[in-house]
Structures are given as C-alpha cells and as structure tokens.
Design brief:
This protein is mostly helical. It has helices at about 20-40, 45-55, 60, 65-85, 90-105, 115-125, 130-140, 145-175, 180-185, 185-200, 215-230, 240-265, 270-275, 280-295, 295-305, 315-335, 345-360, 370-395, 405-440, 450-455, 465-500. It folds into three domains: about 1-210, MFS general substrate transporter like domains (Growth Hormone, Chain: A); about 210-270; about 275-510, MFS general substrate transporter like domains (Growth Hormone, Chain: A), CATH 1.20.1250.20.
C-alpha cells in the first residue's frame, strides 16, 4: 500500500495513566485511520467507470480522479512529519480525520469532473498523514519490546482496507450509485475522530528541524507540472500543444532549481547525505518502479472488466479484493525468511510476481473467464507484499540511525510518486493505443474489403442499417479497448524487465 513513516518519533511506550481499554481504543483509532485511507485509494478504481459516464469524460480525463489523489498524498506526506512535530500528533490526527471525512462526503456530491478532482486533491492531502500518524499511535501503545508486534497489528489495518475497499465499492455501486462509495467513509471517519479524541494521548511535540520551503515548493510544483504534462499530453497531441510545452518546461526548470538549491543550502528538503548512499539511492529507484506497478490493476481493471468483458462491479470488487489475500501470503513468507536470504533475491522474486501478471494480462481476450482473473490477482497480490519488504530492508541496511527518519520519509514519498506516475502513464498509453487500434480496425470494415465480406456471415451485418452500424461500431471499440489494454500491459512488463538489472549494483549489509 502507499504509506509513510511515523510522523513523530515514537515514545518510550504506553503513556502514564493509560488503562488496557484506553490503549486498545487508541490502537483501534490508529488502525481505523489507516484502514479508511487505504480503503479510499484501493476502491477508487471501482468508481471510475460510473464517474466516467456521469461526467462524460474519456479514460485519460477520468484518471485524474486517481492521480490527483495520489500526488496530493505524496506532497502531504512530505511535510506531515514537520507539521506534526510543531502542533503535536493528536491534534494533527484529529485535523486530518475531520478534513478527510468532510471532503470524502463532498466528493460524492460532485457535479463535474473538475470539482471531483479538486476535492480528491484535498482528500489525499488530509488522508495521507493518517497512515504515518496511525503507525506512530499504534506503536506507542506498546512497550519497546513489543513494537514488532505493534507494527504487524497496525499493518493489518492497511491490509483490511485493501480488501474491503474494492469489495465494498463493487457491491455499493451495483446496489446504489457511485456517490455512496464516498459517503460510506463518513461514518468510519466520525468513529475514528471520536476514538482519537477520547483515547489517543497527547504525545510531546518533537523538535522539528527548520523546513526548506523553497525546496518543498519547487519539487511539488515540478511534480504537479510533470503529471499534468503526461496526463494531458496525448489528448493535446503532445508537444504540438502550447500547454504541454509550458508544463514540460516548468517541470524541468523547477526541477533544476530544486537540484541547485538542494546542493547549496545548509538544510535541504532532501538531505544530501542520503543521496550519496549508493544502496539507498538504488532502493529509491526500485521503490519508484514498485510504486508504478503496484496499483495498476486496481486502477485499470474495473474499466476493462466492466466495459469490455461485461463483469458486474460486485464481481470485479471481489476479484480485486483477492489481491489482499495474495499480499497476506507474501508477507507471511518474507517475514519468515527475510533474515536468512539475500534481500536482493526477495526483490527479484517479488518483481517477478508483479511483472508476470502484466505479461499474462497482455494476452487476455474479450471472453476471459473470471477464474483466470482471480488467480492472476492473487499472484499480483503476492508481488505487492514481497518487494516492499525487501526494498525496505535494502534501504535501511546502510543508513545511519541519525538519518533514519528522513530516509523513511523520502522512501515513501518516492513510492507515492511512483503510484501517481504509473496511473497517469497507463491511462495515457490506453488512450493512445485505443485511438490507434480503433483507426486500424475501422479500416477493415468496408463492403469493398473481401476479407470482411468473407468473415461475416451473409445477412448478419447490413452496413446500410443504422442499428447494425451502431452495433458494429460498439464491437470495434470493445475490441480496440482490449487491444489497447494488451499493448499497455505487455509494454509495462518489458519495461520492468529492463530495469531489474539495477539490483546488481546494490550492496547487502546487515545493520549492526
């Protein structure tokens, strides 16, 4: 899942005066915040087909419902630790819970795509800190000797969120309509707020280091400009458009300013010592790639399975929920072996479990059975858990304790950026391939084409009949969408194989 590190340094253990019940309720508050955020991101893909119809938008346009949320999450996570250190963990948790809950309800009331995207930005900004804050709350409810178990308990909130998100969204949309998917998070948010208000203790404020606002601003705007460029580039014919040129130039210019500023300022947004660590830098690259691959099925498959294969959203939700089961299996395996096996092997195997499903999906047809989707989703779920743990272990192996907090913050920031870039790229590829495939298939539909005349039974299609032409046009688009999906999945699989050799330059060193 897309997550982030504890926003403040963990306390020594349970707070004085906390009873067993109050500690349990505090743990539940931390898990609930994580649960509802992961539920929001994992169920987002389920609403895309219906939102696309409601707003009369194209696949690349509706993709902004996902990418805007993830980009806002990444930016918010990058400063959540600093803000929490200034105002305190409990107030930060309460503010984020209220903001996330209110905005979630407003998303369901959206009457235009622009409004929905704006609200999703706010939803991601308020929701993302709930993950690191929840982890800190849960860990602090246990004594130091049991923090490993505490992290496992906290992780179950995210795991259940990934299971319930698509499953609940599918059934809700089939029984009602897409706005209810966002409304259902409101009572969970209210319950989380009450638990946090009543039971989460006031942790001491951390002595937050000065914030590099120039570095933060230039990096954030550069990322947003880049996302806008790749999301709208295909629609605007790429660099034939002034908008694409402007957003691309802005992204490159601000990235250059960020690099120069970070190289010269005393306390940069990204500590320079981190990027000089070869092992850590390799881990960042791998985490970015992992982020690109991890959520692709969650974002794309609801559109393909519903519009091309005719699956009900409740069935699609059940199939996507099986990813969580595969993730659970993968985490069990790696937790038992990670201290005994070279972590690079785990990363390699884990990426294999991510890439192979992409290759298999690249060969799917329009009449695919649900059982095939089921086992491919479970396979992809295994690949969702193993690489994350392996890359995390690799990143932490050579990082000094004094840089641990900054290292983990950057690690998860890069993961979130990978998720956003992956979503934008896959929808851009689908839009471009769909246009090309439709044009190619349409060329063959002509009474002058002998292949077409011989392959279609006599009397089955009358090109002079408007109804037959409409049905044929719909089938062409259906087939073209499947071809576009196949091409995008095959390309992503090949791209993944090309970058894997970067593992060879990583070092493995057990932390002392």
């Amino acid at each position: 899942m897309a997550s982030a590190p504890p926003a403040t340094a963990p306390q020594a253990g349970p707070q004085p005066g906390q009873t067993g019940l109050s500690r349990a309720m505090a743990v539940l508050a931390g898990m609930a915040g994580t649960f509802v955020y992961v539920m929001a991101i994992s169920g987002a893909g389920m609403v895309l087909p219906h939102m696309q119809g409601a707003f009369s938008s194209t696949p690349d346009e509706i993709a902004w419902v996902v990418t805007s949320f993830v980009v806002a999450s990444a930016v918010s996570n990058s400063v959540s630790g600093w803000i929490s250190g200034r105002i305190g963990r409990r107030p930060m948790h309460l503010i984020c819970t209220v903001g996330f809950t209110v905005v979630s309800g407003l998303v369901g009331l959206s009457e235009s795509l622009e409004t929905a995207v704006l609200l999703r930005i706010l939803q991601g900004a308020f929701g993302a800190p709930l993950v690191p804050l929840g982890q800190a709350i849960v860990v602090d409810a246990f004594p130091p000797s049991r923090r490993g178990m505490a992290s496992t308990i906290w992780g179950m909130g995210g795991l259940w969120g990934g299971f319930v998100g698509p499953l609940a969204a599918g059934y809700i949309i089939d029984l009602a309509d897409w706005p209810l998917v966002f409304f259902v998070t409101v009572p969970i948010g209210i319950a989380t707020f009450l638990l946090s208000w009543l039971y989460v203790p006031n942790a001491d404020r951390a002595s937050a280091r000065p914030m590099d606002w120039l570095g933060f601003a230039t990096l954030s705007i550069a990322v947003a400009s880049f996302m806008l460029m790749i999301s709208r580039g295909n629609r605007l014919d790429w660099f034939e458009s002034t908008e694409t040129i402007v957003t691309g130039a802005l992204a490159v210019t601000l990235l250059y300013v960020f690099i120069v500023h970070s190289s010269t300022t005393e306390l940069p947004f990204l500590p320079r010592r981190l990027l000089k660590n070869r092992n850590y830098t390799v881990s960042l690259v791998l985490m970015f790639i992992y982020g690109i691959y991890n959520y692709l099925p969650v974002f794309v498959l609801p559109l393909i399975l519903s519009k091309v294969m005719g699956y009900s959203l409740s069935l699609i939700g059940l199939l996507l929920a099986m990813r969580a089961l595969g993730t659970f299996v993968g985490l069990i395996v790696i937790s038992r072996l990670i201290d005994k096996v070279d972590v690079r092997i785990f990363v390699l195997v884990g990426f294999g479990f991510l890439i192979v499903p992409q290759w298999l999906m690249g060969h799917w047809g329009v009449d695919l059975g649900w059982s095939t989707v089921l086992w491919v989703m479970m396979l992809q779920g295994v690949g969702s858990g193993i690489p994350f743990m392996g890359i995390s272990a690799m990143a932490n192996a050579t990082i000094p304790g004094s840089l641990r907090t900054e290292a983990i913050s950057l690690f998860h920031l890069v993961n979130n950026l990978g998720v956003a870039v992956g979503a934008a790229l896959i929808f851009a590829l689908l839009a471009q391939n769909l246009q090309e495939s439709s044009s190619l298939l349409t060329q063959f539909v002509s009474p002058l084409n002998e292949v077409f005349r011989l392959s279609v039974p006599h009397g089955m299609v009358d090109l002079g009949n408007r109804g037959d032409v409409a049905a044929l046009s719909a089938e062409i688009r259906r087939q073209a969408t499947m071809v576009a999906f196949n091409n995008a999945m095959l390309l992503s699989a090949v791209a993944g194989l090309i970058v894997l050799p970067i593992l060879l330059i990583a070092k493995v060193k057990r932390p002392e």
